[in-house]
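hi!! sorry for the late reply, been swamped w classes. u asked for the two structures so here they r. pasted raw, havent cleaned anything up. first the sequence of the first protein and right below it the tokens
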Amino acid sequence: MRTAYKVRAYPDPDQAAVLARTFGCVRVVWNQTLAARHACYQAEGKTCSACGHLLAELSLGTRRWTCPGCGTLHDRDHNAAKNVLAAAGLAADACGAGVRHGRETSVQSAVKQEPLGVSPGIPVLQGGE
């Protein structure tokens, strides 16, 4: 069971200044990251994930489109997801195969993964309880 606590801080003027400066820096970093991600999405959402052809225009109402460069039929969201994964250096496999997590050098295989140490039935309490 998880327990939640509410805590209220009453910083003195020096602490308030440090917090305001820290939160100001966090806002700047967040806004810069958001702007970069938005620009990346705008470019990648209009790029064919199969051949790299860049479309001049793709309206938001267009959900499926055919690439004029290679003739591949794309779903807008799937194409954008493939482009984002490719930009991150990850494979675009729906089951997660070929995807590296963090700094791992090994690649996850495409097999069904079962939880370890699971046995059927009702667990027995230790100590005769």
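now the second protein. again sequence first, tokens right under
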Amino acid sequence: MNYDQIKQVSLSYSDREDSDTANMMDSFIYIVEARINRLLDIREMAQRAEMLIVDDSKEYYGLPRCFSGIRSIEVKNPAIPDVRNVARYLSNELMNAHIVSGSREFKYTIQADQFHIYPPPATDCIIEIIYYGDLIHLDGINQSNFMSKTYPDIYVFGLLVEISSYTKDLDAAAGWEQRFMGAISDLKLADQVDRWSGTSLEMKVVR
């Protein structure tokens, strides 16, 4: 489904035809997308970024735009292409202990809008980040994204929560909230089975 279809279906389900509610739909979409971005970190939301190290004393790097969580960080040395240096996540407290220990194993943590990696990667190495990004916002220009195409029910149920809340129909809002969270849970479970089936789980940090 696309932007126009999702709005129309949501208004039809809510049995609302008034212009006040229709005019609020774009604002409701922003709210629903903000909720989805906070609740989900599924495979389709994963993105990759690389940065070349030009200062081998640097430990702090800015997070990518539209960042909502890190899946993995790897330090690549072009001179040794067969070696994988996967950085493991530590809490801020454990990172301090790691630095004091003098260990040369790569670890990282998140502080404010930066990630802290230690030891600092050498010059000419590459840091590859697999992270979870926010949804492409639906509007009149961006008519669709992977969520609207594959999981349109999440958009529709989320919009119906907002429409019902806006019109003060709290019973309906509670019912649609249950369906929204149920669809979110189903998608999380399906993604977990798809991603981790046959492998051991590893810790990741999310916002």
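hope this helps!! also noticed smth abt the second:
The radius of gyration is 21 Å.
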